[in-house]
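Subgroup meeting minutes
Present: P.N., E.W., G.H.
Scribe: E.W.

1. P.N. recapped why we're keeping a running log of single-chain structure predictions: easier to compare across weeks, and new members can see raw inputs and outputs side by side.
2. G.H. added today's entry (448 aa).
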Amino acid sequence: MTRTRFLLAALAVVFSAGCDRHSTVPTFAGANKAAPESATKTFSSEGGAPRSAGTVSTPGLLHLTLQQIDFAQIKTSPVEMSHLSQDLDFSSIVQAPSDDIGIVSPQMNGVVSRVLVDVGDTVKKGQILMYVTSPDVAEAQANYYHALSKLQEVEAATRLIKTRLDLSIKNQKRLEGLVDEGISAKRDVEIAQEKVASTSAELVASEAAGNAAKAQLSAAKVRLAALGISSPSKTPDEITTELPLYSPRSGTVVERNVIAGQGVSPISTTMTPRTTQAQHNSLICIADLNTVWVMLEVPQLEVSKLKIGTPVKFTSEVAPGMTFDGQITRLGENFDPNSHSVLVRTQIQNRSGLLKPGMMVIAKVHTQRPGESGLIIDTSAIQNIEGKDYVFLARADNYFEKTGVQRISTVGDRTLVKGDLKLGDQVVSGGAFVLKTEAVKALVGGDK
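Output recorded in log:
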């Protein structure tokens, strides 16, 4: 006890150094002096304490002078009725939304002859991005013209047969009239009828050949479209082996994985459960970056704290001092069996274009802990005295009341408590250790 009294006496000497020579060291509630009736001012709105004539004590209270309050840097914060909240931090990578991505890839084997764009370029839908040289292009166009020529040939033959058929029918009718008049023999009519029948059969065969030729031409057109050729060359003499590749959408070139002279072939894209973006080897990738995604890898213990629409704040070293606002748009369904985490999709408006795919960002999600609501105070306001937790309530005229509390739960600088507190009470959250020191001094003094 002697060592404790010595340390407390030393603290009192240091503390009293901040006071004027006419003030006295504040006393704890155990003293029998009453508070002066003339002391009526309370804490000012500017964070300081009201003026007071001196230091006295009242049972249950501590009293400080203005100089002591300034020296101790006493600050207060209100008791709030709220949920205990928690900020969850995640680091992740910016992605272009998969719905807003377009990839460019050849549909045939070939060699790149020209590339017209680079990463960062803004392109329009339908703009030519590159050229690929391939014999498949020439072959597809040749097949088209062969099918077109065949169809034209069959259609010409069909027209000729129809003309012959019309003439045969007219001749048959003429002969039938002559037979009725007794001028022509019946055998001539029979021959004319046979001619009409044979010509009709030729027409049926020709029309069938025409349908087959149309089918071949349609197949040739489909092949051209599959290669990305919207229309063939105007004439067979203009057939070329060079094929232009067009942009499938408007946006920004975010990937370019091709150079002139590079051999290319058709590719396919696949999706995996742990990504929302196609894993591909596209030659060129275009994305609309007005909106970007960030996939948060959230442990399964934290998933219940998140919901669709929860706001998220993002920061990045690329934009010091700037904060980007986003929100959760999708909660993942597939948990990773190794990390026991799930991907949660967040979306950010990126009108400024500062956020780029592949960029590292820090996400801060403000959540509420389920079932933990009540009186919330700053954690720094709680002082432990002889194994029990207390706070100091700011009362009128520079008085502070020591009040016992019970900690329920703490998250960072906020604590859920139970105790004789009311909504709006001002508790000392800055400089509370000084009041604790005075309270302990009073306890030691009471043990003498």
